[in-house]
Design brief:
By secondary structure, the chain is an all-beta fold. Strands 2, 4, 5, 6, 9, 10 and 11 form a 7-stranded mixed beta sheet that branches. A 4-stranded antiparallel beta sheet has the order 1-3-8-7, with no helix packed on it. A hairpin with a 6-residue loop joins β4 and β5.
Length: 121
């Protein structure tokens, strides 16, 4: 069994900062991509930032210069530092990992349960 557990969401004022964490645990052999997505009611889930194992980060245009994604491979953990938050950043943020559980097995996509981020005064 593999689990992704997120933490760090909450309520913050516009202009404030939050740091999200996501730890992957269980029977993990290797992880290729880890990333963050977000979703608001009535809209499709959208990419926020992804960080493949080759460290070639990719950000949504709306968060470039404000958000920073990083990984601790030893801990199978991905972080999202969010600065200069805006009300339009309000969403449920989901952690994603593409990983395999054995050396020659297939790659699987796993998702966390989501953490709410609310930006309001």
């Amino acid at each position: 069994q593999v689990q992704l557990v997120e933490s760090g969401g909450g309520l913050v004022q516009p202009g404030g900062s939050l740091r999200l964490s996501c730890a992957a645990s269980g029977s993990i052999f290797s992880i290729s991509v880890m990333g963050w997505y977000r979703q608001v009611p009535g809209k499709t889930r959208e990419l926020v930032a992804v960080l493949p194992s080759d460290s070639s980060t990719n950000y949504a245009d709306s968060v470039k210069g404000r958000f920073t994604i990083s990984r601790d491979n030893a801990k199978n953990t991905v972080y999202l530092q969010m600065n200069s938050l805006r009300p339009e950043d309000t969403a449920v943020y989901y952690c994603h990992a593409n990983l395999r559980t054995s050396a020659w097995g297939p790659w699987y996509n796993f998702w966390g349960q989501g953490t709410q981020v609310t930006v309001a005064s």
